[in-house]
Amino acid sequence: MVTIHQLLGRIAYFHTLFIEPALTSSELPRADEPCCNHKDTAGFGQPDVGAVLASTAWPVLDEIATTVGAHLLLCPEFDHWCCAVCRVAAAGAAIAHAWMVTEHCAYGLPLPADPLVRACRTTAATRLALVFTQQHGASCGGLVQAEAPDAGLLPDSSDLPLTGELLALWQDPLAATRSPVVSWLNHCTDLNDIHRVLQQGGTTK
Known about the structure:
46% helix; mainly alpha; single chain; 205 residues; 7 helices; 2 strands
């Protein structure tokens, strides 16, 4: 639980310090496919947001995801009966997408191609949602258990430090033996700092 709280805090810290000040989109989140609970006409079968998500540290993902505009794809109902696992997955996908685009713009890179966007969204959604299900004994019929077919496209910390670390830290956080929140990024104060370190090739220091 301590590790998970550290990693959720890490997402909040990165987003508040680095990403949110650089976000320029004023678009609102978009409606997507219904979550598991709202697809299920027989009743609410999965743990719902009201019963599970709201009583944990996980709502921070919801709070962050609502700031990233159209990168967030919501259940059309978007209420406290939504499947909590679907909600975590949607937030994870949106955060990874927004971070990746923001980093590309900040470092003067071309905008990411669709396969990279899909790989980052799917991988972030899957990794965060799997940890959530492990912690709470939850399940979700819509959760993809395997890595995305194009996971080999994923950036690492030497390309996109924030997005790369996000994906790496959530790959198997419960088996981690190192401190999950100690890196050279702790010494940076904005995206310009990160870009300068990348240009100097100092990401391993």
